[in-house]
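Action item from last meeting closed. Structure (306 res):
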């Protein structure tokens, strides 16, 4: 079998990743090339370039078609996730850019905006390609205020209890985790952390008004553990993640925001005894109002038609 030296000086381009994904799905380099609208020799050259960049043989070319190698199957799965994330990024950016002239005005809390809203809005746009969606990203408290003031048609929040004066519907479940880097002493603990131990160590946390912070504060209050001692308060999940990975200190974060970090070992979950950090993610809209048109379609996408 051929092999290539590892030379990751150039990142793979998205079209090469799309080609690999299509080869895996169609079982044919020719069919994948046709679907991308390129000549087969050009597609073959692009695939060879991708293999050299990654230092792996990804596809076995045979007379019966093109078959992914074992390494190719693994990279195929990763490539699909990368392309999904890019599609979500582009959908979210377009919604942010068009919010002034939006036909549907949406506000979402940080975690939902980063990980779920682009998927829902993308599904809505596939059904209504001409629809302009404006997305405003803020914390859960402000989302509720925007909905009450009539400045947005639909909101999504992650606060632990339903906002007052608004109609709500569950769209997803989430839980918060206490996380540290592998080098932190807590990563080597053999027994769960107590809530008393948790509140005596300064933590990297979200700002007050965020659903993540409110969920943590209420959970500690229910456990009778008092209040946390913030080491630093930050305004987004991305900034909290960066801080804890860089060794600033332990953090409390949404599982949605750090799933890949946990799977790949960049962060370690620390179990805390007697602390329930589960929460419900909700859609909110003005009380007594029946959602119609694009807002109703977006809600259906978010709830899976429930």
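Sequence:
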């Amino acid at each position: 079998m051929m092999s290539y030296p590892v030379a990751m000086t150039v990142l793979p381009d998205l079209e090469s990743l799309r080609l690999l994904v299509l080869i895996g799905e169609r079982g044919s380099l020719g069919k994948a090339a046709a679907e991308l609208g390129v000549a087969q020799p050009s597609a073959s050259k692009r695939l060879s370039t991708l293999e050299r960049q990654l230092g792996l043989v990804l596809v076995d070319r045979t007379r019966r078609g093109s078959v992914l190698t074992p390494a190719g199957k693994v990279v195929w799965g990763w490539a699909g996730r990368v392309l999904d994330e890019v599609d979500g990024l582009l959908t979210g950016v377009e919604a942010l850019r068009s919010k002034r002239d939006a036909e549907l005005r949406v506000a979402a809390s940080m975690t939902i905006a980063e990980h779920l809203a682009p998927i829902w809005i993308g599904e809505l746009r596939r059904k209504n390609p001409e629809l302009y969606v404006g997305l405003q990203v803020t914390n859960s408290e402000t989302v509720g205020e925007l909905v009450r003031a009539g400045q947005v048609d639909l909101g999504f929040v992650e606060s632990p209890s339903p906002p007052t004066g608004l109609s709500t519907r569950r769209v997803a479940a989430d839980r918060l985790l206490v996380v540290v880097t592998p080098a932190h002493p807590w990563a080597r603990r053999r027994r769960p952390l107590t809530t008393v131990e948790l509140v005596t160590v300064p933590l990297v946390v979200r700002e007050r008004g965020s659903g993540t912070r409110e969920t943590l504060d209420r959970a500690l209050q229910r456990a009778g553990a008092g209040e946390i001692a913030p080491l630093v308060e930050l305004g987004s999940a991305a900034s909290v993640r960066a801080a804890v990975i860089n060794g600033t200190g332990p953090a409390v974060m949404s599982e949605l925001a750090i799933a890949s970090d946990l799977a790949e070992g960049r962060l370690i979950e620390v179990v805390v005894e007697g602390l329930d950090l589960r929460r419900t993610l909700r859609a909110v809209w003005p009380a007594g109002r029946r959602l119609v048109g694009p807002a109703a379609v977006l809600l259906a996408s978010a709830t899976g038609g429930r």
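Note appended to the action item: Residues 70-97 form the longest helix (28 residues).
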